[in-house]
Design a protein that fits this description.
This is TniQ domain-containing protein. About 45% of the residues lie in helices and about 5% in strands. It has about 300 residues and is mainly alpha-helical. It has a domain of about 100 residues. The strands form 2 sheets. It has a 3-stranded antiparallel beta sheet, with no helix packed on it. A two-stranded antiparallel sheet has the order 3-4. The protein starts with 18 loop residues before the first helix and ends with a helix.
């Protein structure tokens, strides 16, 4: 019986490393291009290893290397939700159809072994929360994009193999000092949004504050296409006197999404739902106002001599 080929030795993937980054490091370790590595193993090189079909493409590469099958499957399934919902690819970076990455030059500079993070593949991940610097899209020296399937196979002057921390095209280091890219202010909301999008893709859905049920990735895409509605929702939440009332703004957004996507609820049903919700909201508001009035009266009586 023919046994499957194995590259025998492969670097262990970092916890937040992408599949494309790990494959690049495998290629650099063996001095092979991405296509040559796939050809040696008898498999077809897919265009985007992060969302590879079949999903066990990454497992084929790591077969027989000592890396557990569970860890390889975890690496392959990072973008599983995107694989199941192809329109979600609009959340990822591409250059002329090829997978591409942004990168933080200071993260690369401080890495003992440079690698590409999962977060760097996302369009909305524009600021490094650790170093508070803007992410770069291209090599600072030659302006070339950082492609996920093109490892740098050059050698340094000391005859050491270059790694992920070097540009594939000019072979110069991507790392820079802190003085080269000073910190930039970014709002906490922006950091929360980029973290939420990455988390939603990795989990296959998103949970919104004040809303019990998880929402799909399609809802996130819809939010990106309707920024005015999102702005209106935040303005409505800002006007809420009590934290528990903020859920109504989110509910309105979900109603609009359901109506536009033509789900089971009709416009009349949504109107009835909103009327009942507002009635409950204002009833709660009236009760709180009454309670506050009684407390003030009692407090006033208690201080009267």
């Amino acid at each position: 019986m023919n046994r499957p080929l194995s590259i025998v030795n492969a670097p262990y993937p970092f916890p937040n490393e992408s599949a494309a980054s790990w494959i690049q490091r495998v290629c650099q370790l063996h001095g092979l291009t991405y296509k040559a590595l796939a050809s040696f193993l008898g498999i077809k090189a897919c265009r985007d290893p992060d969302v590879a079909v079949p999903r066990h493409f990454v497992c084929f590469i790591g077969l027989g290397t000592g890396i557990s099958g569970k860890r390889l499957q975890e690496l392959a399934d990072v973008f599983h939700a995107v694989r199941l919902h192809p329109p979600s690819k609009t959340l990822l970076n591409f250059h002329d159809g090829a997978p591409s990455y942004r990168f933080c030059p200071q993260c690369i500079a401080t890495d003992l072994v440079p690698y590409l993070r999962i977060e760097w593949r996302f369009k909305d991940w524009t600021v490094c929360p650790k170093h508070q610097v803007k992410m770069l899209e291209r090599c600072p020296h030659c302006g070339a994009p950082i492609l996920g399937t093109m490892p740098c196979l050059g050698m340094s002057e000391d005859d050491e193999a270059l790694g992920v921390g070097h540009c594939t095209f000019c072979e110069r280091p991507l790392a820079t000092t802190a003085e080269s890219y000073p910190q930039t202010w970014v709002s906490p909301t922006k950091l929360k949004v980029q973290n939420a999008i990455v988390s939603a893709v990795r989990r296959g859905g998103l949970r919104l504050e004040g809303y019990y049920w998880p929402v799909s990735l399609d809802f996130i895409l819809w939010l990106r296409d309707n920024p005015e509605l999102v702005k209106s929702c935040f303005e409505r939440r800002a006007r809420c006197a009590y934290p528990e009332e903020s859920k109504y703004g989110v509910a309105y957004l979900i109603d609009e999404y359901g109506l536009e996507r033509r789900n089971k609820k009709t416009a009349e049903e949504i109107l009835d739902l909103r009327t009942a919700r507002d009635r409950k909201r204002w009833a709660t508001w009236a009760d709180k106002c009454y309670e506050a009035t009684i407390k003030r009266q009692r407090s006033h009586k208690g201080t009267t001599p």
